[in-house]
Amino acid sequence: EWTVGDAQTWKTAIEAEQVDKDDVQGVANTVVRHVTTTLARQAGNLDELGAYQATALSVRDQLLKRWNETTSYHTKNAPKRVYYLSIEWLMGRTLDNAVLNLDMRNTYESATQKLGFNFEDLLNEERDAALGNGGLGRLAACYIDSMATLNLPGWGYGLRQLISSTGEQLEAPDPWLDRENPWEIPRLDVSYPIRFYGRVEAIPNSSRAIWSGGNECLAVAYDVPIPGFATKNTANLRLWAARPIQGFDLNSFNAGNYEASVASSSDAENITRVLYPNDNMYAGKELRLKQQYLWCSASLQDILRRYQKLNLPWDQLPDYVVIQMNDTHPTISIVELMRILIDEEEVPYDVAWGITTKVFAYTNHTVLPEALEKWPLPLFENLLPRHLQIIYTINMNFLNEVAKRFPGDMDRIRRMSIIEEGTPKFVRMAHLAIVGSFKVNGVAALHSQLLQSTIFRDLKGRDGFTNVTNGVTPRRWLLQCNPRLAQLITDTLGSEHWLVNLKQISQLLPMADNAEFRHAFREIKIENKARLADVLHSELGLSVDVDSIFTCQIKRLHEYKRQTLNLFGIIHRYLRIKKATPQERKKIAKHTAIFAGKAAPGYYIAKLVIRLIVNVAKIVNHDPDVGDLLRVVFIPDYSVSVAEVLIPAADVSVQISTAGTEASGTSNMKLGLNGALLLGTVDGANVEIAEDVGEDNAFLLGHLAADVEAVRYSNSYNPTSLEERSPELAAVFKAIEAGTFGDGHVYEPLLKTIYDHDYYLVSNDFGSYLAAENLVDELWADQEEWTKKSIRTAFAMGSFTSDRSVQDYADSIWSIEPDPVPEN
Ligand code: Z15
């Protein structure tokens, strides 16, 4: 096994580096060693940032030891592995999560305490790694946590975007990498060439071709170790950064042309510089396709290089490799695998296709037409000419089969084709993903149903589709963000095992009827609300009443998510308060309405919604007539670490997308797990959540998905006045237009979307929304009943762990087994 040097010397050195997980002095030693050596700082003269960095480096040492053991164990064992390709990884902070997963939180807390620092303060020095926009990116982060925890051999692949251009009021990009990032390991030796543009020459009498010319750059690997909870197993997230092939053009430099000499270098680096800031919205930019191709090609070259070390024939690839595509963003990897097999490995076309279609599986995350990727054919052909040729062949074979099954049905062929006809033509990535995958899944039961019955109706046979309902990791979204509730659960169950088997919390459901437990549960909620109130006071100068109902709608700003329904409900409440007699006021429940979320920079209506929220907050929060009955809060710069403070403090989880539009939602799961009651439409995973918590413990509202189309049609083609659709909403609009919240004209374009067409049924669901809110208020008056429902909600969430989701993928799609690293 040992190939260099003296084995005993090596082993003794490795031993000497071991730190016992309970050894406070040992941990302090490693922290101080990083202070004085890695950071070159003076031990006695250190600020919190320095202390955070040294602590993070010490934790990283622990992670890397495990990472190395996992990697060499899996290299030796060669199990089938899953590769999770996601263009977004919304990881948030790492330090707290890492020490919890290592079971070293107490040790680090004591060690840093002894060195003169408060561990919580150090945690707050860390920047969020925000390589994602919303649900899709955060789902990937939860899934890799679960893959590591379940000991499944798997890696994530993504892009190392340097800045996430954000969409809040100020368009300041978030330079999360402007400090040294201790959580990533540059692997300058792991790099692959990537080609763009160029020309294709066919090789006569073969399906092969030679693709040459154009531009080349390199994709360089950065590795992020992902520790599993209570296991040695440590997964890897490999992120690619673009680099020039030669850093610098010496000829231009020597000729005195400095700009040209660095141009090629910065051109290449620009490819991975930004995270596209849209969520659920396709923008069609060439740079984005470049990002996708660089990431997919590098990942495939990496995966195939690992496979080739096994010295097996290509047709066994599907026994060792499964690639899960997180949405259509990595679909080009299907074509890239075909290209490599055919052109470089000389595998015959049909054999290559047989292999490829056993390797890929595709997860769809949306039915919204504006989110479906379709590349203009000229753009695609210019950037990836060889790939387009392969797509033509894939499409021809596919349509030939369709024609055989449905002779003469030209309409069907046009609908199903990977190429959309028109000027220009388009490449439909979802169709390509479906045709190239052995399994396609949606992310909640209703969503998977809709995929099969509507947008992808005739694209795949029944057993090609399945459902895997999303889940969230209970380590971050309960243990880490709500330590006191986690402790109560552990104490009551008598073990921590629920953290890796969340189903067990259902054993606590009867505690809803235990007055003492209810008291403890409620105290924790109040403490979490007080913690949020402190943050709101210190960061935004806002006072909120912890005895009020905290309603939380925390998600990207999007018309289909209907922050408007919530906001117009608040205005309705405000008008009611203004009119109320002192007697009536006493009966009005106190509300604190909390919004958080970003809008894409170019999404005009979404930004207008933020503007109205902020202006309503300004008026409502300062109106003496309102007193403590209503507060409106918009939290800027929403992030994973902000969510970790909001979620444990929520009383009500607001999930009110138009039925049929939200594929799943995941904040509904996080909020439910922390005891927030569901106020939601019959959409996405709300359906399954309501089923599990029981409909009498949730507040459901609005039209059903099956009825949306008819109502929408009538809104457009047999329009009635807003007054007729909802007199309450008409009154709200009047108040806005009258200038109650500043110049009413500003909001005309927003209001117009509802006056006309009302595509998302805001007016049609407004009455039902207000009725559901009334039920919320009634229940709040009975705190014991409220707490019962809150307990029943939290402990009915056992299915919504990402461990269950990932296990579902492993069993029904990936066919992979756990392969735990031996614990010595
Ligand atoms: C995104 O965050 C989601 C879907 C998308 O197609 C894109 Cl591009 C981004 C979200 C869904 O809107 C949400 O319902 C779902 O819970 C989440 O993905 C994870 O599946």
Automatic annotation (TrEMBL):
Pfam families cross-referenced by the UniProt entry: Phosphorylase (PF00343)
Swiss-Prot/TrEMBL cofactor(s): pyridoxal 5'-phosphate
Molecular function terms from GO: glycogen phosphorylase activity; pyridoxal phosphate binding
Gene Ontology CC annotations of this record: cytoplasm
Residues with the N6-(pyridoxal phosphate)lysine modification: 670
Lineage: superkingdom: Eukaryota
Enzyme class: transferase
Keywords: Allosteric enzyme, Carbohydrate metabolism, Glycosyltransferase, Pyridoxal phosphate, Transferase
Upper classification of the organism: Eukaryota, Fungi, Dikarya, Basidiomycota, Agaricomycotina
The EC number(s) this enzyme carries: 2.4.1.1
Function: Allosteric enzyme that catalyzes the rate-limiting step in glycogen catabolism, the phosphorolytic cleavage of glycogen to produce glucose-1-phosphate, and plays a central role in maintaining cellular and organismal glucose homeostasis.
Protein name per UniProt: Alpha-1,4 glucan phosphorylase
Gene, per the UniProt record: glpV
Gene Ontology biological-process annotations: glycogen catabolic process
Reactions this protein catalyses: [(1->4)-alpha-D-glucosyl](n) + phosphate = [(1->4)-alpha-D-glucosyl](n-1) + alpha-D-glucose 1-phosphate
Family: Belongs to the glycogen phosphorylase family.
UniProt xrefs under InterPro entries: Glycg_phsphrylas (IPR011833), Glyco_trans_35 (IPR000811), Pyridoxal_P_attach_site (IPR035090)
